[in-house]
Amino acid sequence: MSGRLTVDAMIAGVRAARADPRWSNNYDFLTVMTDASLGDVSAEDTAELVHHLAELDTPRTDGKGKRAAVVCSDEMAAGLLTYYELHSRTERMTDERYFRSEADARAWLAQRDA
């Protein structure tokens, strides 16, 4: 994802991924925000995003827990994304974590297979 992001744009991105015929509910999920601005997203918007994504959460068919990593190196977005991660723990069945580097996110996602 890139550009000026809104809650609607982020939800649309998730819905588009789920609509892809290659989608599997058993995948872990990686979102990389490059040159992205979250300046238009408030704490209330973040809570709304978590709520909408929780409505889309469904369990994996293989019984494993779902995991998702969000990568954004923008220092200005760090606080909002940390809030998002903490808030998602109370509403979502997906364990979602925020990372500042794609390498760290991929390493965390790969731990399941180690």
Walkthrough of the structure:
Helices cover 44% and strands 19% of the residues. The chain has four helices and five strands; from the N terminus they run E-H-E-E-H-E-H-E-H. The chain has a three-stranded parallel beta sheet. A two-stranded parallel sheet has the order 1-3. The termini are far apart.
Question: Count the strands?
Answer: 5
Helix content: 40-55%
Low-confidence stretches: none
Strand content: 15-25%
Kindly report the average pLDDT value. 90
Q: What strand order characterises the main sheet?
A: 2-4-5
* Tally of helical segments: 4
Report the C-alpha radius of gyration, rounded: 14 Å
Helix-strand string = EHEEHEHEH
Largest sheet: 3 strands, parallel
Secondary structural class: alpha/beta
The 3D shape can be described as globular
- Span between termini: 28 Å
Topology:
Blueprint: E1 3-4, H1 7-19, E2 29-33, E3 36-37, H2 43-56, E4 66-72, H3 78-91, E5 94-99, H4 102-110
Parallel strand pairs: 1-3, 2-4, 4-5
Q: What's a concise summary of this model?
A:
With 114 residues, this protein is an alpha/beta fold. It has helices spanning 7-19, 43-56, 78-91, 102-110, and strands spanning 3-4, 29-33, 36-37, 66-72, 94-99. The relative contact order is 0.19.
Q: Any descriptors?
A:
single chain; 114 residues; alpha/beta; 3-stranded parallel sheet; two-stranded parallel sheet; 5 strands; 19% strand
